[in-house]
């Protein structure tokens, strides 16, 4: 399970306001197909909301902890019947590596003006 600082958790909670639940956990609980769907959603989105159709808060809390342990994710929020979990996506970390600024001074290209050609 990933651990988040309070500042990271607060920033992720702010991002969840516009999200809709992508997976629902029904009376059947955490069956294998539900866990696979949550794993796929985390892989593509990173930050997801899950709706739990169970009235017992302790059961919902157990679902949150179990999912985070099984899927190597971080619990962000449990409010009412909504769970929010986060896991960094491989695509976003690759994009961050590609979007680093390039030092243009090290380029050895020489540009000629149209009059010099």
From TrEMBL:
Protein keywords: RNA-binding
Keyword RNA-binding set for record: yes
GTP-binding is among the record's keywords: no
Residue ranges of the region described as Disordered: 93-117
Pfam families, per database record: CRS1_YhbY
Gene3D superfamilies: YhbY-like (3.30.110.60)
Database matches in PROSITE patterns: CRM (PS51295)
Domain of life, source organism: Bacteria
Molecular-function GO terms, alphabetical: RNA binding
Sequence ranges assigned to domain CRM in this UniProt record: 2-98
Protein name: RNA-binding protein
């Amino acid at each position: 399970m990933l651990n988040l600082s309070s500042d990271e958790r607060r920033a992720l909670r702010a991002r969840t306001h516009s999200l809709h639940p992508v997976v629902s956990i029904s009376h059947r609980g955490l069956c294998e197909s539900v866990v696979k769907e949550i794993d796929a959603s985390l892989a593509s989105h990173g930050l997801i909301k899950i709706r739990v159709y169970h009235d017992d808060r302790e059961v919902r809390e157990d679902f949150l902890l179990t999912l985070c342990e099984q899927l190597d994710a971080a619990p962000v929020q449990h409010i009412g019947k909504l769970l929010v979990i986060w896991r960094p996506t491989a695509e976003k970390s690759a994009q961050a590596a590609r979007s680093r600024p390039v030092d243009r001074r090290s380029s050895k290209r020489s540009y000629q003006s149209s009059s010099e050609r």
